Amino acid sequence: xxxxxxxxxxxxxxxxxxxxxxxxxxxxxxxxxxxxxxxxxxxxxxxxxxxxxxxxxxxxxxxxxxxxxxxxxxxxxxxxxxxxxxxxxxxxxxxxxxxxxxxxxxxxxxxxxxxxxxxxxxxxxxxxxxxxxxxxxxxxxxxxxxxxxxxxxxxxxxxxxxxxxxxxxxxxxxxxxxxxxxxxxxxxxxxx
Length: 192
Known about the structure:
The protein contains ten helices and five strands; from the N terminus they run βααβααβααβααβαα. By secondary structure, the protein is α/β, with parallel strands linked by helices. Strands 2-1-3-4-5 form a five-stranded parallel sheet, sandwiched between helices. The N and C termini lie close together (about 10 Å).
């Protein structure tokens, strides 16, 4: 089983050692699966769509895990580009005979937000749009019978846990990657 994970910094593993990235941790837990990390920090869903044929279809995986859209919201203030690009990638996967699997990006933890990210990722508008985007991804998955891993479900509820989960309010620290890997493995093993 070969799975390509297409995404942005949340997939790439911004700020943590390569051995601690959730895709690496998941591959250790899933013997017999090759998990390819095709995350690029800073990428938008539109950027992911533009490299889909090369990074996903060109490598002929059995399954494609697709997660992005946060940067679209941070940089444009809109979820429409993220929604249309995610839908296009799912349907391209199906066209190529690749089973799609969608991920819901993490919410922002504003109290832990690093200064360099506040201009893009702080405020009620970003929080609301990320929540709306999450709901859209869950409805989209349900409507088209596409499995969805909701990473919001692995985020701790308490501030102490949140401080350990996040590196900078956007990207997961090693603890966050451990939780994401466990959540992902739990979901994907139902579909392989």
